[in-house]
Give the backbone structure.
Amino acid sequence: MISRIVVAIDGSEAAQRAVDFSVELAKKFDAKIDIVNVIQYPTITYYDSDQSFYDSLVQRMTNTASAKLDEAAAVVKDAEIAVDTHVLQGDARFVLADQVLEQLSPDLIVMGKTGTNIVMRVFMGSTARYVSEHAETSVLLVQ
């Protein structure tokens, strides 16, 4: 039984397809959807830059994440499905595989197979791959 679905978004086309797919699943199972956008804030130390630059960068990243969440939530609301949005901070792999499970207790995590950050994928591996291998709940990857 699926009663709570977490959809991870990052602004990619695959993430939008994950939202659309989740809406269809939620309709079938009468499930609630939580949409999550994980921000990995820059690790700029205050010695490298001044505080106002760092604060401005963090605020822009947070605003962008919130806007993406609002767009995705509108799709879910249009389908008359209960939805909450969450901006979380950290490495998306660990946040989705661990923190999201602890905080939201989803029955299913839905995410795009590939995201927007090719550099991270090359050097650190795919977020989708990591979550699908380490999350202790079902994970659905959308093409």
